[in-house]
Amino acid sequence: MSDILKLYQKTILDHQKNPRNFGQLENPTHQAVKDNPICGDQVHVDLKMMGGKVDDVKFCGRGCAISIASASIMTKVVYEKELEEIKVLYSDFKILIDPKQELDASTQNPELQVFAGIRQFPSRRKCATLGWEALLEAVNEQGTS
Ligand code: ZN
What we know:
This protein is an alpha+beta fold and 145 residues long. The chain has helices at residues 2-7, 10-17, 65-77, 83-96, 125-142, and strands spanning 30-36, 41-50, 53-62. Helix content is 41%, strand content 19%.
């Protein structure tokens, strides 16, 4: 249990208690829902893309601290980003949480680095990537405009 507690750092708990951009958009251009049955997490992402960039983003859902905190921090870092930039952020994030990958902290987004502890908990990786997967599925399936 103490190892799990280490993982639940202050920032993660803060985002779980007060998730940023929590809710739904009135007129989303893209949306998707992803489930993580192993943990019981569900994240729904609403996006408004404008001029190829994220103009607004909100998420809602339920689940463990990691799934909610990760989706919350994701909505902050993807704001005003283009799809290609989001794909780079997500690919760096997957390296951050994968113990099999060489980690170069200098290329990592500082806000996402709070999740580096997930390297020690492979079973929680799905929790951390759920919001990202929902966002990318929304954009990929519905195209950008
Ligand atoms: Zn979870």
